[in-house]
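TL;DR need structure tokens for one chain.
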Amino acid sequence: MTASAQNTVTGGKAIVFGMTVLVFAMMAVVAQLPMPMQDSLLAEGGPFETLSVVGYGLCILLMFVLWPAASAARRWYFAVFMALFAARELDLDKKPFTEGLLKARQFSSDGVSLMEKGVAGVILLAIIATGLILLRRETWGFIRGVAKGAAPQLAVLIGLLFIVVYKLTDGLARKLEPFGITLGQDQIDLAYVIEEVGELGIPLMFAVAIYLTYRLPRLAAAAPSTAP
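>> reply
TL;DR here they are.
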């Protein structure tokens, strides 16, 4: 690898590292704010949730603005999942449905009409099919990129880890109760901050990955070679 190519790789990783640090810095800052201010920032429909939705919209916009049209069209499933994540932030998996799209009761409850069950089933099957297509086309390339330390794949990996953090901290106190573990109010409040701010980290890292997928090859091509 030439020095210019190495500088390009290092620069990409620096962007990923800087954005990751920014997310954790936001967690630290919000955790130190007075509770009324925390509640206002992290509430449903509040600034952080709104920014998360905007972030997913930005990811879709970046795909169609930065990537070649053929590439964006071929990888349409990324845009679909960004839209689904945004819809999840807006609780659209719950509000239009009696029990909730992702709840087994939506399909087993007698209180849900047959038509609603059918619509929910079609939507869920479409989401599953899209996910399977994404996994089939992208999994091995993603694994190879992470193994090589490629910045775009590392950004995606960190975004996925933020999803794991969100799922683990969502209702953490309730999840720990069966194990006889009781959290104090300060710990519950901290988990809530990590959950809500971490949610914003997901679209931020995906946006970084989309940008770097476009930018790094161009920087590498434009950089003068120092090879003998």
